[in-house]
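ok new one. same drill as before - structure tokens go in, u give me an amino acid for every spot. 200 of them this time. try not to just spam alanines like last time pls lmao
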């Protein structure tokens, strides 16, 4: 038995002389393999990497275990990045504003700019509505009197309808942006209070 163990150790040492790495795996039949190169085909139970002394550098890992490990590492990496981003944001928040009022005033100005843009969209929508009514009156008169409809009326109505549709979508998007800005303002005020309290 001692002779066999010695031969195995000697074989491992010889295989590992090339670059110091030895590969060990168990095939589907349960046979253990050692080589100075990884197997050509993937192994269900994975492939272990050994040092030239025979100690395990990287344990064998099945595909399922590998996917689970990589998924776990990805989650950990995302969490680390989230914490890093949060720390940077906290630092920028404290350095950008001297007090809560300064934070509120600047954010309210930004929200006012968004609101003014939305007001302009509403004004345009109102103007289009008036134009639409005027054109529709022409259509009604034409139907009632039997007189030919002026050229371009139908086309102009279609153009107005299309612009109204786009404007309503833009107004909704702008409102969502305003709501998000207000929510962010409230969150930042709360966070600033927490951070400034810790800093004192």
């Amino acid at each position: 038995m001692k002779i066999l163990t010695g031969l195995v150790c000697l074989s491992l040492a010889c295989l590992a002389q090339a670059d110091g790495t030895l590969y060990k795996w168990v095939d589907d039949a349960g046979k253990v393999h050692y080589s100075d190169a990884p197997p050509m085909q993937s192994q269900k139970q994975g492939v272990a990497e050994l040092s030239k002394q025979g100690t395990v550098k990287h344990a064998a890992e099945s595909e399922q275990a590998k996917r689970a490990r990589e998924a776990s590492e990805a989650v950990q990496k995302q969490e680390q990045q989230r914490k890093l981003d949060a720390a940077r944001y906290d630092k920028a928040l404290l350095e950008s504003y001297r007090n809560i009022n300064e934070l509120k005033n600047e954010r309210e100005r930004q929200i006012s700019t968004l609101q003014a843009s939305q007001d302009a969209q509403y004004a345009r929508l109102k103007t289009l509505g008036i134009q639409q009514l005027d054109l529709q009156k022409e259509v009604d008169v034409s139907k009632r009197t039997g007189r030919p409809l002026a050229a371009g009326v139908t086309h102009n109505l279609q153009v107005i309808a299309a612009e109204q549709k786009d404007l309503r979508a833009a107004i909704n998007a702008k409102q969502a942006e305003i709501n998000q800005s207000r929510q962010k303002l409230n969150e930042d005020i709360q966070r600033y209070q927490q951070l400034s309290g810790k800093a004192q």
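Strands lie at 21-26, 32-35, 47-51, 56-58. and btw Residues 62-96 form one domain.
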